[in-house]
Amino acid sequence: MRIGILTSGGDAPGMNATIRAVVRAGLASKDQVFGIYDGYRGLVEGKIQEFNRQGVSEMLNKGGTILGTARLPEFEYESVRRLAIKQLQKHDIDALICLGGDGTYTGALRLHEMGIKTIGVPCTIDNDIASSDFTIGFSTALNTACDAIDRLRDTSSSHQRCSIIEVMGRHCGDLALYSGICCGAEYIITNESGLDKEKLLADLKQNRLAGRKHAIVVISEHITDVYQLAKEVEEYSGYECRATILGYVQRGGAPTPEDRLLAARLGKYAVDLLHEGITGVAVGVRNNKLHNTPIEEALAMKNESNKELSKLVQKIS
Ligand code: F6P
User: Rounded to the nearest 5°, which phi and psi values hold at 15?
Assistant: First the structure.
């Protein structure tokens, strides 16, 4: 087979490890693998180059994506997708493996509907692809967030402050939930839990009065202006308060062993599925077993923070 591979949307640690797994698994099965640079934009523009074995050396442990990535809203237009298909035909590419999150999956689904064989691989720090228990990149971002929160705890406890830390995740609370639990945050606020500002302020005030010296609040992005919230906490609770937005630092860095392993498993699995003639699906793990879901279903699945962990938070924070 002649297999194309692209990375699209926000980059995620472990994308390179996935590219490597696809290339090595493809070559082992006598396939040819073509890297498509800069996501769907590069596909439309014909930025396509064949990989050899050495082309994916020394990159297993590198963050980012050697293929580059982009967001291409225009891909929603059929006319733009036709240009992409022309490029695939020009290079005789039989199938496309698309690494990314739900925007990437939507592109892969639209191409599939137009007769192109596609497979989606979940690569995003947000862990917001519900058809897989974990996405490639989440473990690394979680590690980075935990490291940062531990550091912020040091300074916040030295100064007896409240520290509000905003983590990424788009609309999914997993990064906040998991990092909050791992770092013993007093409060974890996600889209799913919602922000009850009055209760938060009242609780913090009570904690302060009870002699608790500092507090950590981990909050998902897109919920509120955390700098403004810090001001309100200072005014109301008696704690000095500082807000920190972790931002893009969460997207970089060497992938953790968990992400490398997931990348190896899902990359190889995607190639195996193409050989079995199964396409139009998203690969993933469920209960630590490889499985695939039609992309359309994967996109429709409700993506919520882990309910068991949310309950745990209520008991131990
Ligand atoms: O999807 C990954 C992610 O980092 C989200 O957590 C964040 O909301 C978004 O991408 C930021 O996107 P951009 O790189 O376009 O600013």
Answer: -65, -45
First to last CA, the chain: 53
- What are the domain boundaries of the chain? 2-137+255-302, 138-251
Which CATH class, in words, describes the domain spanning 138-251?
alpha beta
**pLDDT 10s digits, 95-133:** 999 999 999 999 999 999 999 999 999 999 999 999 999
Task: Tell me the C-alpha distance between 181 and 177, whole Å.
Answer: 6
Say yes or no: domain 2-137+255-302 is CATH 3.40.50.450: yes
| Cα–Cα nearest to 120, from 276, 245, 6 | 6
Token digits of residue 60: 């297993």
Supply the pTM of this predicted model.
Answer: 0.96
Q: Of these residues, 38, 126, 133, 259, which one is catalytic?
A: 126
CA-nearest residue for atom 13, ligand 1, is: 10
